[in-house]
Amino acid sequence: MPQFKNLLIFVAAGSAAVLSLAGCSSTGGAPAATSASEGPAKTAAVIKGLDNPFFQDMEKGIKAADASITVQAAQDITDTSGQADRLSSLAGQDYGCFIINPISGNNLLQGVAGLKAAGKTVVNIDSPVDPEAAKAANAVPDTYIGTDNIAAGKLAGEQMAQLVDEGDKVAVIGGIAGDVTSGNRVTGFTEGLGSKAEVLATESADWDRQVALTKAGDLLRANPDIKGFFVANDVMGLGVARAVANANLTGKVSIISVDGVPEGLKGVESGELTATVAQYPYAIGQMGAQACQAAAEGQTLPELVEAPVALVTKDNVADAIEAAPAPFEPFENPFEK
After folding, report:
1. For the Periplasmic binding protein domain, which residue ranges apply (predicted)?
2. C-alpha 199: how far from its chain's center?
3. Where are the alpha helices (DSSP H) in 121-198?
4. Is pTM, for the whole model, over 0.90?
5. What would the CATH number be for the domain defined by 149-279?
6. With the CA atoms of 77, 80, 85 and 87 taken in that order, what torsion angle do they form, in degrees rounded to the nearest 10?
7. Where are the domains of the chain?
8. How far apart are CA 57 and CA 211, in angstroms?
């Protein structure tokens, strides 16, 4: 494998949804709302299911910034109504700032509208609310902090382009069909890969390791000459790695995934995965908590905050593991100023 230097980029959220969110923010550069009570505003966070290590790291980042923050989570990645109920319950208590990581673009909008009407600060992290629906409902968060998934996918595509030969077949395993995050990662991957290889039709594996294993096995039987897999998250990537191993193709088929969760980093270290594009839920959670602290101090919140991503290969995975769950290189954090 060619040698690559550590790569860390700071990405402005590039999807249309996120750009629209930034463009329609109601803050207009004014200081975010704060709690009416004296002293630091209490903060609550409602995130996605803690059954996933990605959101476990997000919770760690939130707590690292402020251990007093109340964190509640959905049961799993499909628990849209349960997550909304948790936000509704917390909204009736004396919190001045709310960190939200919605499962869908719409499932927390009713709760956010109520918070904004009450003058509370809302910090949207990781997964953006639907910008048009939020504007219509007067539910636009005060700031958005997250990763540009198109840029993350593009890093993976550029890496894959250096690993395959002209005209090779490359398979793509996405998350839930129609999911914006998965779609943006796949879009970025194909942009980064360009015309270097033949990209097979995307197969959806529902963010599930076992489903990804099955889908990858089917693809390998139908296309035994596949030379690479792009997989939309590490958990599914490890399922693909098992299918590749079952076909006795480990080391002969490149597998690049996205997330950089501990299992994914260990997969790169062991050679199961060729690379992962690490995003940092720990840093996203930490900045979300710091945004609430800044708002409580009367500071103006930026409408859009860039989150770091890094390409992790065999060459730098030891550094990534040592620093995990935090980023292994410095990144720009506007809330530390």
Report:
1. 46-299
2. 24
3. 131-136, 149-161, 180-193
4. no
5. 3.40.50.2300
6. 70
7. 7-147+280-309, 149-279
8. 24
